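Entry type: protein chain
Record version: 2
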Amino acid sequence: MSDPRQMPILVVDDVPMVRTVVRVVLGQIGVHDVHEAPDGAAALAMLDERPYGLVLSDLHMFPMSGFELLRRVREEQRLRQTLFVMMTTKEHAHGFTAARRAGVNACLVKPFTAATLRKTLAEVWPTSHQPAAQGVGPTVVEL
């Protein structure tokens, strides 16, 4: 597999500032082909148009939640192998149980640090291509 940092990533969250912050953090670890969707329905339409190597999605969105997006991705033969990381706040982290049963690759609690995001990506990406830290310190990303 090629370097996963070169694969397009889709960030899905209904809060524009969250999408921006995640994009910035991804840039700090060397990921630059980042696309954004405001909810699961928009993300599903984008996934129909082109392949993404990874989806980073919020759990709670309207009209289509991140959980429903995950379920649809796992049901679709063409999308089934897409790496999927679910994000939510500590207060809603109980939703990760159902996401794990539905086939999510990893879960990430917001707010998170750039180092935590890097570690989460290292868990889902092949070990030979872990994202490099590029001046990433313990700064907390408030989402």
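Comment: The first strand starts at residue 9 and ends at 12.
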